[in-house]
Amino acid sequence: MYRPRLSVEDRPDVLLAAIREIGFATVVTPTPAGIEATHVPTIARQAPDGGLVLAAHVARANAHWRVSEASASLAIFQGPHTYMSPQWYPTKRGTGKVVPTWLYIAIHAHGTLTAIEDRAWLRRQVEDLTDRHEATRTAPWSVSDAPQKYIDSMMRGIVGLEFRVERLEGAWKLNEEENAADLEGTRRGLEAAGQAGELLARALAER
Question: Which of 3, 10, 26, 122 falls 20 to 30 Å from 76 in CA-CA distance?
């Protein structure tokens, strides 16, 4: 991934926290028939050997799971992003030498993808994913709320994906190359730009 020097983010704890917060990836795998790309919610887990594994599942009808064992793949996590207006820069009122850009957070996970059909693995994946996203609700739904036969029939229609991460790289494009006044203008502009802008402003403050 192209990353200007000031946008490089390689701290493992920061990258892992962002992966867990985003929780949704585009998994890309080259195959002899062409490139397969699938959008999936993920759960980040620590493997027995201490490595990082991303667990997901897809519909059995999705040909992506039929990749060869341990296929080289890329998982892309797109964080908050927003347009940045030149109006945010004090420099605009001075020299006028400013242009718009796009600010964003993105993480690329490089690794290998393996299909999983083990029923216990799939059950854990579905339960973990559901519990994570139901946790903040006043009356959370649980997999056990549905009839067991119905859950069994639904699970026959999915296949697990286990993505073993070999390398992570993050890009935090937050205009950090600008002078102090324009960087402050960026921060104020982001804070007024809605939810994505607020998240980017927070990330900028944490850098």
Answer: 122
Is 65 inside any structural domain? yes
The tokens describing 26, both together, are 């585009």
Cβ pair 84, 100 in contact under 8 A: yes
- For the chain, the farthest-separated pair of C-alpha atoms sits apart, in whole angstroms, at 69
Name which residue leads in pLDDT, 40 or 177: 40
Amino acid at 122: L
For residues 190 and 206, is the Cβ–Cβ distance under 8 A?
no
Instruction: Give strand ranges (E) for 4-100.
Output: 8-9, 24-31, 34-41, 43-46, 52-59, 71-84
What is the pTM assigned to this prediction?
0.91
Task: Provide the CATH number for the domain around residue 96.
Answer: 2.30.110.10
Domain that holds residue 189: 5-202
> Which pLDDT score, from 0 to 100, does residue 37 have?
96
- pLDDT at position 195: 86
207 is a domain residue:
no
Tokens of 100: 């718009």
